[in-house]
Amino acid sequence: MTITRPAAAEVEQRTVSLTIDGQPLTVAEGTTIWTAARDAGIDIPVLCHDERYDPVGVCRMCVVDTGGRAYAAACIRPCEPGMEVATSTPEVQRSREVLAELLLVDQPPREEDPKQTTTADNELLAVADDFFITEIEDLFPGPSRGTDGSNPVIEVNHDSCILCDRCVRACDDVQGNDVIGRSGKGYSTRIAFDLNDPMGQSSCVTCGECVSACPTGALTNKAINSIPIQPKAELDAVDTVCPYCGVGCALTYYVDRERGGISFAEGRDQPGNQGRLCVKGRYGWDYASSPQRLTKPLIRVDSAYPKGPLSAATQENSTQDTDGPGRKRGAGKGGRKPGGLVPYEEVMPHFREATWEEALDLVARKLGGIYAESGSDGLAGFGSAKCSNEEAYLFQKLIRTAFHSNNVDHCTRLCHASSVAALFEGVGSGSVSTTYGDIENADVAIITGSNATANHPVASSFFKQARRNGTTIIYIDPRAGTVADHADLFLQLKPGTDVALYNGIMHEVIRLGLIDREFLSSRTSNYDELARTVAEYPPELAARITGVDVELIREVAKVWGESKAGVIYWGMGISQHTTGTDNARCLIAMCCITGNVGRPGTGLHPLRGQNNVQGASDAGLIPMFYPNYQRANETKNRVLFENAWGTELNPENGLTVTEVIKSILDGGVRGMYMLGENPFLSDPNINKVRKALSQLDFLVVQDIFLTETAEFADVVLPASSYLEKDGTYTNTDRRVQLGRKVFDPPGEARADWEIVQDIAQRLGLDWNYSAPREVFEEMVPLMPDYTNLSYDNLGSSGKLYPVQDPENSDGTVVLFDERFNTADELAHLVPAEWLPAKELPNEDYPFVLNTGRLLQHWHTGSMTRRSFALDSIAPRAEVSIHPDDAAELGLVDGEFARVSSRRGEIVLNVKVSHREARGNVFIPFHFREAAANLLTIDEIDPTGKIPEFKFCAVAIAPVGDRGSVRVGGAPQ
User: What confidence tens digit (pLDDT) does each residue in 87-100 have?
Assistant: First the structure.
């Protein structure tokens, strides 16, 4: 795999010669005066101009004398041959001074200015200081235009606004959200959100890009957790990466060491995010300072046995005879409260504090005892995609070497396991073949099964920018998610009909002769079998199965087939099905039959869900793979790792997350080590998970908060958040980045890698790592894709693996330019037949449930629901339903509804939404008080072993008296 970016074509560059302040210059044609002056070391003041945005020239602060009748705005005026420019004549300077006075008179006093009293970088005041403007006696401010504090973390002060439109361009041109504009006339003109709504009630997504853009105090951050916003010079800047989705944005925390908290965050200029952040990255970091952090080891007290859930919320809908210590089924109903966090007052009395020595000795003794009695089949470990690469590596190494078991897995089993299975089968690698930023080189991009604006918001900003620059966006999903608002073509298919749709598209591509015959003949196998299969899916049949208009299917096939460069991005709407592997097989085939792999602007990209799900998978946190996807059941790989780790290893593949739950119920797995995972909420069919967790002989949970899963633990170990340790993280693009420690862990909490090592030593392993760097140095020689990487050459922005020359290259953008990673170096085309979902609607359960994420929340909510900003913006669980369905059922927006499946029921608020198709409902899975996975089915994909999160049959009905309902519970 090599870097495929071609060298830039030799283009004749025309130049322009001119003088600026008497200095002769020659610049490229089209260069603005401001840019030419800057490059020559000549400073021209600006207020509306920022190189991140297209210039508009509205503030006129940058005017220069070009000899014309009027001064020219240097930020937009291109250089011309023979032009003589004067940038700072007395007349020009006076013009700027008068403009500064006119703008300054409406500003709040310096001692009250929202920006100057916080970050102290008001650009207008800096210009005024350059002109020594102190008092303005002959001008008077106009009437106040007001303030707006409706957003929980952003303050709007219209009197500080100079109408430079930087916020408008940041919102439109960079983030692509199109929320901010102008309203009013004359002096009353001001920035407006949507139709002049308060910011907190508008469609603003609180990405904070406008705050970053604003040169004055018009848009400023509010303090979070009483940590004041201060000048950067007074704070400690720590460069690290965002802990949330797989985009892996580079950011800087500005830390108040005196108060022990973060003042604010900013994005860094890394190729993957280019300084951008979303609401989670910019404002969602305060969970780490929650007073509910675990700070001491906990051991379950004797009276809390037999084991079971400890809080009322986790006991409801139980299928067990006994729900918890001393409680019969149904006891505690009515105890559920809104708020969505594990009630410590209910759970903590069932544990006692312990020393680290006592807790670790107990863990080693119990797990070691189960291994002695039941062998490797009796134990399993769930690792975490929230932990670093080094921690994932050590965790899987512990399970494999201490217990000689491959029963080690993590959340990839619940998000992209089917994608990885199909990619390995088809192209020989589970990694993405190109980056999300490579969409800029694509003629056409298909985004399918992913509401990227919510799940990968910064990546989606690149998608939206590409569309503005001419890339055709095709969006395919059962929901009209916000990506649909930015698509050229939107296909709203029926849930579970993906294979039929893509077969229909490929049928038409082949019929039109739009296949790449040379690519097929030289770089693929099994095309004839694929062609025979899709021949049975004409667009007419695909339309009947999917509900998509037949002409739209034909149009998509034509647009895709005729593109010179096409790329496909997909999310869990593709993978989280019992047919998830088949869905991904179709996408691989769609790219291959048109030759859309291995070139800029082409390829296959399953958008990874968690911050380090790519890295955790790379590091071997998978039951059938050692690090770097080396198959665990192949002798040569096992011998390699036996030699490296100095012990015999198990030759059989281990159990996946879902298979472990079944094994527990069947009496197989008896003990578990759970690191940063919360299967009680994240796994399907919660009743079954509850029963399994209660049945375990021994469970150790290592986490930063008490989770629902921790209620079943025998020992709870207080771990570290990503803010409290060093390590590397690998994002969805294959970019390996350094995460840096910001704070020490609270109380007696420890870094996860240290805890894993402590347990390993007690189990007889000779581990003596002193820092994550040493772990990384051990990993790299065992992981060919990471070859040449080191802590020292990752730098501030990381590297895309594989990389041949890390000192001079950012790494490989496009893979498979010459060969695929399969044994025969060909792409293997695997045909798929459409199969219906395992559980279909009927009269009793007539709706299809789809689950997923919200922009403001992440995974099981243990972090985001403890973030002030994120919980303030999205505080409650809602079921989204089409207006016509709501009307027929008597459901009212904001009122309560009961949603039930064959496995249980929940009560939550109704959200009437045109984004849902008739017959479908959507519920996010972050909310424990309305746990969506209580409803979901635990059928799995036979190949990827991933659960069917995106399709189960449910019923929905209104709940009567509001006063009789507890949020997320059943009526009293």
Answer: 999 999 999 999 99
- Residue 273: which residues within 8 A CB-CB, separation 6 or more? 247, 248, 249, 250, 267, 458
Confidence band of 435 (pLDDT split at 50, 70, 90): very high
Q: Which tops the pLDDT comparison, 1 or 341?
A: 341
Averaged pLDDT for residues 837-848: 95
- Which residue spans within 662-753 are E strands per DSSP? 671-675, 698-703, 715-718, 727-730, 735-739
Which residue is associated with the tokens 């800057």? 38
Q: Which two tokens stand for residue 238?
A: 């720590």
Angle at 160 between CA 157 and CA 166, to 5 degrees: 95
Residue 258's pLDDT band (cuts 50, 70, 90):
very high
pLDDT, average across residues 119-131: 94
By the 8 A CB rule, do 313 and 904 touch?
Answer: no
**Alpha-carbon torsion angle 464, 469, 474, 480, nearest 10:** 30
Radius of gyration of the chain (CA): 29
Q: Strand 671-675 vs strand 698-703: parallel, antiparallel, or unpaired?
A: parallel
Q: How far apart are CA 214 and CA 160, in angstroms?
A: 10
Burial of 257 (0-12, 13-18, 19+ CB in 10 A): exposed
CA dihedral 968, 412, 806, 236 (to 10 degrees): 20
Read off the pTM.
Answer: 0.92
Q: How far apart are the C-alpha atoms of 15 and 215, rounded to whole Å?
A: 33
- Helix (H/G/I), strand (E/B), else coil: 390: helix
Residue 351: pLDDT band (50, 70, 90) is very high
Fill in the amino acid letter for 455: N
- pLDDT recorded at residue 2: 35
Listing DSSP states for 611-636 in one string gives: TTHHHHHHTT-BTTEEGGGEETTSHH
The residues facing 880 across adjacent strands are 911, 922
DSSP secondary structure letters along 832-882: ------SS---SSS-EEEEEE--TT--TTSTTGGGSHHHHHHS-S-EEEE-
